[in-house]
C-alpha cells in the first residue's frame, strides 16, 4: 500500500490484543499515527516494543469502550490533539461458548452484548460527529462468522455478533452520501496465543493470521476501498 496512511490518524480500540496488535502495527508501518485503547500495561509495552522505530507515532489510553462518557472523552481528546480522525477500528470483543441456551447464565449474555455490541455502539456514537464535520472517515467493526453461522452452544455470542453486524449495516445506511464509510469484517478462529491455549489440539496452520486480517482492515480504511460501504467481509479463508 505504500505510504497511503502517512499523516493520517487512526483509533484502534482493543489495539493491544491478539488482532488489535496486528492492526495497530500495520497502520504504524504505513505511516499512520495510532491511538489505541488497552487494559493491560504489559500488552501496551509489548506493542511499543514490536513497533520499534514507529513507536513514537503510537499513543495508548486506558479506556473502557463500553462506557459512553469515557469513550467520548477519549475520542474528543484524539481529535483535539491531531485535528483529524481518519479511521476507527473496533477490535474489542469476547467469546463464550459450549453452553446450551437454557443453561446460559444471564450475566454471560450481558457480557457478550457489552463486549461485542455495546463497544461498537459507544465508539460509533463518539466518532461519527467528528467524521461528519470533516466529511470523511472509515469505521471498521470486527464482528464474526458466527453472526451468520449460528452454531450450537453459542447463542449469546452469535446473537451479539449478529446484532453488531445489523447495527453497523444500519449505521452505514444513516451515513450514505456523507463521505463516512462503515464496514464489518467476519473472522472465525484467529491464530492468537489465547486461541491456541484454549484449543491446544487444533490445527493452528489452518487458522488465519492476525497480520493477514489486518491487511484487509487497512484496505477497507484506505482510499482504494472508497466504493465499499455497508459490507460484511468474510476473513476466514476456507475455514
Provide an overview of this structure.
The chain has one domain (about 10-235): 3-Layer(aba) Sandwich (Rossmann fold). Helix content is about 45%, strand content about 15%. The protein has helices spanning about 20-30, 40-50, 70-80, 105-135, 155-175, 195-200, 210-220, and strands spanning about 10-15, 35-40, 60, 85-90, 135-140, 180-185, 230-235. The longest helix has 29 residues, at about 105-135. The model has no long low-confidence stretch (mean pLDDT about 95).
- CATH topology assignment: Rossmann fold
* CATH H level, superfamily name: NAD(P)-binding Rossmann-like Domain
Number of helices: 7
Tally of distinct domains: 1
Strand content is 15-25%
Q: Which key phrases capture this entry?
A:
239 residues, alpha/beta, 7 helices, 7 strands
Give the arrangement of secondary structure elements:
Blueprint: E1 9-13, H1 18-29, E2 33-38, H2 41-51, E3 58-62, H3 68-82, E4 87-90, H4 106-134, E5 137-142, H5 155-174, E6 180-186, H6 193-198, H7 210-221, E7 232-234
Parallel strand pairs: 1-2, 1-4, 2-3, 4-5, 5-6, 6-7
Concise synopsis of the structure shown:
By secondary structure, this protein is α/β, with parallel strands linked by helices. 44% of the residues lie in helices and 15% in strands. Helix 1 crosses helix 7, helix 3 packs parallel to helix 4 and helix 4 packs parallel to helix 5.
